Write the structure tokens for this entry.
Amino acid sequence: MLSLVLPKGSLEKATVQLFDAADLTVRRTSDRDYRASIDDPRIDRVRVLRPQEIPTYLEQGLFDLGITGRDWITETDSDVVSLGELQYSKATANPVRVIMAVPNDAPWQKVSELPKGVRISTEFPAMTKRFLDKHGVEAKVVPSYGATEAKVPDIVDVIVDLTETGSSLRKNGLRILDTLLTSYTELVANRESYQDAEKRAAMEDIALLLQGAIRARGNVLLKLNVAQADLRAVLDIMPSMSSPTVTSLAGGDHNAVESVVAKRGVNTLIPALKAAGAHDILEIPISKIVD
């Protein structure tokens, strides 16, 4: 039913892991194979291509559905339908930013101070030119094909590049002058395909599974038993996404309690629950959380 295109490169590993967690495992003969498959009746064709190309291919109708970054959608000015942000990136769950950076010792403190003819290297020339026009800066924008931060100051004066943690900028003696765009990864669709009711339903199913897998990350299910006399003490320290589920056990003087909690902190939470009177405590991994 759906043709799907996934990003090659820096997002590839994180995307494949997400699809696996969503029970949409991507199968390829090797990491270099641009053709893939997913054992799901809603998906009949899968390709793995550079994220820079994906928005254009989707707009042209070569694929129904794909994953790319808001940065490349903006750069290519592609007319696609977003089914929502997928809050993951290559290293963290944080968004990436398209930033303008200059050497630490550069005299400029804001974009409008950049001199006429300043040389700027970037993988986002269209976005950069629109940004410079907005600030009234005349510059020479030089397309970059990688290692952009290494081109300052010998080749260019300024760069416009992606950053997720900022570590590469610091390593290369650069500071951020301004942010052009904050970009999450997005699930996006061809506009015509999205108007097809059957395809749209399939797209929304896939979006639900992916969002559920993302939401489950960093969480576990805790299940425990506790005597009625200790229930209040246990509930007082039991975190929950909404409220813990409490069920009376046969016999009437004990309860089963379960709650979704953050994985981080479980190492101190479980002993505290035990000390409050909980027993038979189970920690169970979660693959999806769907509202």
Observations:
- The chain has a mean pLDDT of 94.
